[in-house]
């Protein structure tokens, strides 16, 4: 029975937080309409779905008019009459229409936008909040947020080699508590930076974390975070974590990593992590090595007793995650829909992770809009973990939406990853 036949699929070129064009897609059915904005990474993995951009002078080549034309000229007629509540069917039709492995033809941004807007239309047609439409009757796990308080790498202008130095309020028992504690730590860290590193150190990067001037050692960033946590009286309520994004300081010619003025081998870097994990209350490391180094990541996973998250390593792609599982590389999947393309493929990756004892951390992109499907999907997938930056409207809207869902669920909600993982 078709309850929500797709009548129209439309797209517009809108702007993201970096003032770069992206897609806003609308899927219309007689039973309800869905709309979704497409995010965009900057520190992208090499194995992500192809992102379609116009090239040329307009917006320095970043326009998405051709993607808009593809949605309306090609995708709309192909999906007409498909049931929007049949997510797998719609996503399979998108895959067949494209015909390439990484959506080189239609564009991964086209496919992600249409897939997410279809999901929203399905939720509207069934009159369910998105998180419940995705998660079913028992959807009720709110995610523990990883807050990127100090940024570096590709996402900030400073000298820090690691991309994200996160604080994790592992002692909190709700999103409301996690957000409040972290906000207080954020204000405190701002005071410390202003006093000791100068006002400009309070400028923020793409995900709203500070960008301290003259700090080039991740240990100094962690020390600053710990000081702010201590000053607020939270002590052990917080742990630390990092997205290293090591590919960005890896030289594939010499097979070395440029870190702290040294040229480190994979083994040197592993020793550095071992010391770091000994010295700091670190619970999670994302992309600690080059994105194709499954062997090195497997060795590190063996050696370190912390969560190892694969972002560029897996690119939310079931095929790459399977390789990781076979080789014992990493213990968690970073989950970004637009790395792989459709909701169905991304959900498949999340299921594969869970079935094999891997954790799932739902993630923002550094480029996005205030659209909050991310927060809903984190609850719908019962992921138990989310990273969605710190300040800036497109990040705080995710927290606002999580707070709303938490209030809606009331006492029935649980918080964070299962068991005492990360605590
Ligand atoms: P991106 O970076 O969204 O720019 O790819 C975020 C991350 O590496 O986790
Ligand atoms: Zn990452």
Walk me through what this model shows.
- It is a single chain.
- The chain has 423 residues and is of the alpha/beta class.
- The chain has helices spanning 65-79, 87-98, 108-125, 130-135, 175-197, 218-231, 266-279, 294-303, 318-327, 337-340, 343-355, 373-380, 393-409, and strands at 8-15, 21-29, 32-37, 141-142, 144-151, 164-168, 239-243, 250-251, 256-259, 262-264, 282-286, 307-310, 332-335, 359-363, 384-387, 414-415.
- A hairpin with a 5-residue loop joins strand 1 and strand 2.
- Helix 2 (87-98) runs antiparallel to helix 3 (108-125), helix 5 crosses helix 6 and helix 12 (373-380) packs across helix 13.
- The protein binds 2-phosphoglycolic acid and zinc ion.
Question: What layout of secondary structure does this protein have?
Answer:
Blueprint: E1 8-15, E2 21-29, E3 32-37, H1 65-79, H2 87-98, H3 108-125, H4 130-135, E4 141-142, E5 144-151, E6 164-168, H5 175-197, H6 218-231, E7 239-243, E8 250-251, E9 256-259, E10 262-264, H7 266-279, E11 282-286, H8 294-303, E12 307-310, H9 318-327, E13 332-335, H10 337-340, H11 343-355, E14 359-363, H12 373-380, E15 384-387, H13 393-409, E16 414-415
Parallel strand pairs: 4-16, 5-15, 7-11, 11-12, 12-13, 13-14, 14-15
Antiparallel strand pairs: 1-2, 2-3, 5-6, 6-7, 8-9, 9-10
The protein binds 2-phosphoglycolic acid and zinc ion.
2-phosphoglycolic acid binds next to loops.
Q: What's the shape?
A: globular
CATH third-level topology of the largest domain? TIM Barrel
Element order: H for helix, E for strand: EEEHHHHEEEHHEEEEHEHEHEHHEHEHE
Strand content: 15-25%
Small molecules in complex: 2-phosphoglycolic acid, zinc ion
**Beta strands, count:** 16
CATH architecture classification name of the largest domain: Alpha-Beta Barrel
Q: In CATH, what is the homologous superfamily of the largest domain?
A: Enolase-like C-terminal domain
Helical content band:
25-40%
Oligomer: single chain
| Widest sheet: strand ordering | 5-6-7-11-12-13-14-15
Assign the structural class, choosing from mainly alpha, mainly beta, alpha/beta, alpha+beta, or little secondary structure.
Answer: alpha/beta
Average pLDDT reading: 97
């Amino acid at each position: 029975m078709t309850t929500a036949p797709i009548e129209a699929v439309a797209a517009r070129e809108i702007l993201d937080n970096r003032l770069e064009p992206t897609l806003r897609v609308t899927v219309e059915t007689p039973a309800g309409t869905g709309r979704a904005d497409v995010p965009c990474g900057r520190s992208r993995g090499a194995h992500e779905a192809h992102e379609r951009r116009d090239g040329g002078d307009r917006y320095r080549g970043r326009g998405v008019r051709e993607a808009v034309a593809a949605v309306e000229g090609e995708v709309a007629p192909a999906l007409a009459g498909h049931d929007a509540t049949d997510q797998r069917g719609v996503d399979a039709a998108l895959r067949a229409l494209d015909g390439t492995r990484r959506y080189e033809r239609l564009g991964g941004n086209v496919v992600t936008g249409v897939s997410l807007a279809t999901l929203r239309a399905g939720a509207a047609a069934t009159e369910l909040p998105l998180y419940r439409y995705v998660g079913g009757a028992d959807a009720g796990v709110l995610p523990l947020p990883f807050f990127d308080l100090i940024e570096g790498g590709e996402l900030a202008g400073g000298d820090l080699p690691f991309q994200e130095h996160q604080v994790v309020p592992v002692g909190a028992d709700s999103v409301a508590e996690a957000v409040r504690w972290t906000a207080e730590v954020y204000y405190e860290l701002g005071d410390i930076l202003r006093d000791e590193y100068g006002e400009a150190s309070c400028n923020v990067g793409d995900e709203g974390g500070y960008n301290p001037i003259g700090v080039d050692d991740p240990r100094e960033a962690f020390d600053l975070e710990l000081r702010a946590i201590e000053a607020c009286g939270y002590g052990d309520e917080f742990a630390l974590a990092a997205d290293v994004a090591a590919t960005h300081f890896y030289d594939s010619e010499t097979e070395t990593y440029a870190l702290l003025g040294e040229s480190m081998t994979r083994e040197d870097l592993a020793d550095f992590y071992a010391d770091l994990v000994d010295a700091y209350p670190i619970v999670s490391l994302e992309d600690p090595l080059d994105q194709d180094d499954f062997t090195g990541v497997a060795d590190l996973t063996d050696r370190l007793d912390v969560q190892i998250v694969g972002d560029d390593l897996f690119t939310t792609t079931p095929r790459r995650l399977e390789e990781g599982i076979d080789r014992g590389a990493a213990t968690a999947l970073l989950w970004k829909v637009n790395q792989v393309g459709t909701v169905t493929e991304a959900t498949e990756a999340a299921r594969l992770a869970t079935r094999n004892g891997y954790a799932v951390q739902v993630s923002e992109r550094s480029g996005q809009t205030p659209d909050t499907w991310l927060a809903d999907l984190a609850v719908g997938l019962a992921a138990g973990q989310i990273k969605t930056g710190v300040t800036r409207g497109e990040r705080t809207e995710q927290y606002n939406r999580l707070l709303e869902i938490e209030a809606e669920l009331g006492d029935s909600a649980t918080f964070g990853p299962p068991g005492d993982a990360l605590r």
